[in-house]
Amino acid sequence: MTTSATAPYESRPIESWGKMKEVRRNIMRDLWATKKRGDILYQGGYAAMVSLPAGLGNAGAFGWGPAMASIMRDPELARRCNEASEAAGLGSDCCVTLRVNFGSALVGIHNLARSGERLQPDFAWDVHQCEAQAKTAQYFAEYYKVPFFAIDIPILPLTHDLASGIKYVVLQMHDFIQWMEKITKREYKDELLVEAVKREWKTSILWSKLCELQKAVPAPMDYRLLNSLAALLVTSKHREGVPELMADLVAEDEVRVKDKVAAMPFERCRLLHEGQPPYYYPPLLKIPRDYGGTFIGGRMLFALHGAWELHEDFSWTVSKTPEELGLPIKDRDTALRALAELYLTYGRMFLQNLQFYKGDEAIQVARGWHADGVVFHLDRGCKGGAAGNVKNRTELQQAGIPTMCYEGSNADPRDLAENQVVDRIEAFLESLGLKKIITAKDGPDEKDD
Amino acid sequence: MPVATEQKVSAWDKFREIVADRHAYAKEWKLRTGGKAMGYMCTYVAEEVIYAAGVLPVRIMGSREPQDVTEPYIYGMYCPYCRDCLAQGLLGRYNYLDGITETHTCSHIRQAYDSWQKFVPIGFNHYTYMPADVRSPRAKDMFLIELNQLKKALEDWTGKPITDAKLDKATRAYNTNRQLLRQIYNLRKQDPPPLSGLEAMYMVMSSFWMDKAEHSVLLRQALAEIKQRPPRTDSKLRLMTIGSENDDPELIELIESFDAQVVIDEQCTGTRYFWNKVVPQEDRLAAIAQRYLDRPPCPMKDLQEVRQRPKWIMDRVKEYKVQGAVLVRLKFCDPHEYDLPIIRRTLEEAGIPTLTLERDIITPVGQFKTRIGAFMEMLQADII
């Protein structure tokens, strides 16, 4: 069933997007030039506490894999990488981010620069909050034969002594810094750490502000645009230029909200997408567009890079700044304390691993962001992200919020039955009373991804 | 009239009986003692603290039967064991429990615990954070704080203080039990060993549901009974099983139905559960904390640059003169999947052939029989 209609909202591209691409490109260029500069290169350092190696200078971060975006643009390559990991003995049902990135090493592209040079990391490290995260760094440490360090993140319920958890993480960070100095034989400069932590905090708050602006009807951005920032945020929240970019995006979004400029000209239905999307299949996030629907974000996406204050009813508001919270960032110790607080007290990503509150938070996010429905990705490749999802789905349904689930994988195309999933999402949209709109093709350009 | 003599039940039959009818013991224990029973799922739960509170720790395990009650709670790509555990709660099979507790372990078991404490009516629940990097110098202080919280929660719940004397008594009971299990395991170094792998599994698993003091009585009886056994002369292939919960005695029985014997294991229904003891310290909880940090780690807890598990496994391979290893992994069990390639490589580089079996809660007997049979033929050919 289709219907023709006139778009109720104005839509236009994000003006700062060009700058975003430039910042992203510069960071990638910078990464591949790490060794030429004589700087340290590390594997890991993904999505949290990324400031820690900053005291070593302009260290380059591989994250989990610098080729991830290229692999996701090429589903056939994604298949090859996954299969290479499986041939090396990893189960096809374990963390796909580990499989695809480790597989990229096995097929020879993980550390291969465009110049043809191969970059050898100096060490591997990561925080450990799900089963896979530091284990991935451990795998790479063994592969590249470099030292390895894990920082264990305590997953504590709200009833526990959070101060002890903060202290535990801070002490491990101190150990990590001493370890880095020892293995790299470089002086660690606290003033660089201080500046990096300030930027990591700032970026996190600005991310939350950007997400909070999504509460507006119509939403100024959609899931795809927000998620396009992930490549920057997972490894580079602490780098110069990133908080500045985020500030520009927030400022532009505020104007868009004021002027009711929409991401999608039709916003008859606001949807949340829970779990990472199948990165190799971008059309999925565009399906609602044809029905006048918009994926405006998701609890996991908002949580992943943000700094949020959690309230008693499990709703979130953007966190205050470290200064306002009484967390001055002046020296090594205060910087590490502020960094631990950012992820243990104000980050909603790690603590979701406990699952206790995930359902309550999902309901509050759906209500706070005025969502008409929630689409859950039962991600076979991310146990942490999908944990509790079927239970949360029931909890949302009981709270009167329509939901649907689809099975897939964020990075393994073999796990997604595309046609079936498209059919299911379309059926869900129709169950919400929507019909296909003939003219709804004038959203942000595809190249904006 | 002849006086009727009571036929004493063999300890080995009793172990098997406890495993087969696992709920009967705890129910009877509660009636007999008037005490409370506390369920837990992961062997990183510090049972000594619960025992010191006068509460019987009871391990929640699956029943290895097909079930359809967990779909609204846990997505089907999480390990079948965690779903099986939750199913037991949803089906009311552990409804004699007065409380439930869990420690920080994999996201699979944490989901089972989360849904249990929310959807299965229960009087008490408490979660304890257990550090993931157990060899970190910072882990002990963190864990100790959490154990103190567990102790306080138990005291509040039972209304009785957990004194040092009670902790000492509990620690002694657990250490004695562990020492006896080690003593019997040591006998398996003999060729041929005087007990089968199946018997060893029943012996360890029965301790999950029994009061440790009473289980130790059975272990002493079992030791005495072993001495009465006629010496064996049949030498069989010596195997090690390695894996996660591996809670299926039928699988061990199947392996041993060939010309082979499981002489040692590395699994949480075996050595990982009991291998090391609490070394007494002035601070009782600190001593208990150290025991759990020092125990043979599961993959969730092995986060050092030099992995602990491969060395621990190789040490047992040498001690027990292992000739082949069966790596048993549960479908969807990520932590074990991450370690498996490294462990397999370590064993094979040391000349120990391996067979990897991926199982669900139900062992596919026909398939496995063929694969195990082929593995045995290969091993025998290698040895000849």
How would you summarize the topology of this molecule?
The complex is a heterodimer of chains A (449) and B (384).
Chain A: E1 2-3, E2 10-11, H1 17-32, H2 34-37, E3 41-44, E4 60-61, H3 68-72, H4 75-87, H5 96-106, E5 123-128, H6 133-144, E6 148-152, H7 162-184, H8 190-213, H9 223-228, H10 230-236, H11 242-258, E7 261-262, E8 269-274, H12 283-286, E9 293-297, H13 299-305, E10 308-310, E11 316-318, H14 332-344, H15 358-368, E12 373-379, H16 383-386, H17 389-398, E13 403-408, H18 418-431, E14 436-437
Helix pairs in contact in A: 4-5, 7-14, 8-11, 8-14, 15-17
Chain B: H1 11-20, H2 22-33, E1 36-40, H3 47-52, E2 55-59, H4 80-90, E3 99-103, H5 107-119, E4 124-128, H6 139-158, H7 164-187, H8 197-206, H9 212-228, E5 237-243, H10 249-256, E6 260-266, H11 271-274, H12 284-294, H13 308-319, E7 324-330, H14 334-349, E8 354-359, H15 365-383
Parallel strand pairs in B: 1-2, 1-3, 3-4, 5-6, 5-7, 7-8
Helix pairs in contact in B: 1-2, 1-8, 1-9, 4-5, 6-12, 7-9, 8-10, 13-14
Describe the protein.
The complex is a heterodimer of chains A (449) and B (384). By secondary structure, chain A is an alpha/beta fold. Chain A has one domain (2-438). Chain A contains 18 helices and 14 strands. Chain A has helices spanning 17-32, 34-37, 68-72, 75-87, 96-106, 133-144, 162-184, 190-213, 223-228, 230-236, 242-258, 283-286, 299-305, 332-344, 358-368, 383-386, 389-398, 418-431; strands at residues 2-3, 10-11, 41-44, 60-61, 123-128, 148-152, 261-262, 269-274, 293-297, 308-310, 316-318, 373-379, 403-408, 436-437. A 4-stranded parallel sheet of chain A has the order 4-3-5-6, sandwiched between helices. A 4-stranded parallel sheet of chain A has the order 9-8-12-13, sandwiched between helices. Chain A has a two-stranded parallel ribbon with strand order 1-14. In chain A, strand 5 (123-128), helix 6 and strand 6 (148-152) form a beta-alpha-beta unit. Chain A is globular and about 65 Å long. In chain A, 57% of the residues are buried. In chain B, helix 14 links the parallel strand 7 and strand 8. The radius of gyration of chain B is 21 Å and the shape is globular. Chain B has 15 helices and 8 strands. Chain B has helices at 11-20, 22-33, 47-52, 80-90, 107-119, 139-158, 164-187, 197-206, 212-228, 249-256, 271-274, 284-294, 308-319, 334-349, 365-383; strands at residues 36-40, 55-59, 99-103, 124-128, 237-243, 260-266, 324-330, 354-359. Helix content of chain B is 50%, strand content 12%. The interface between A and B is large, with 50 and 48 residues.
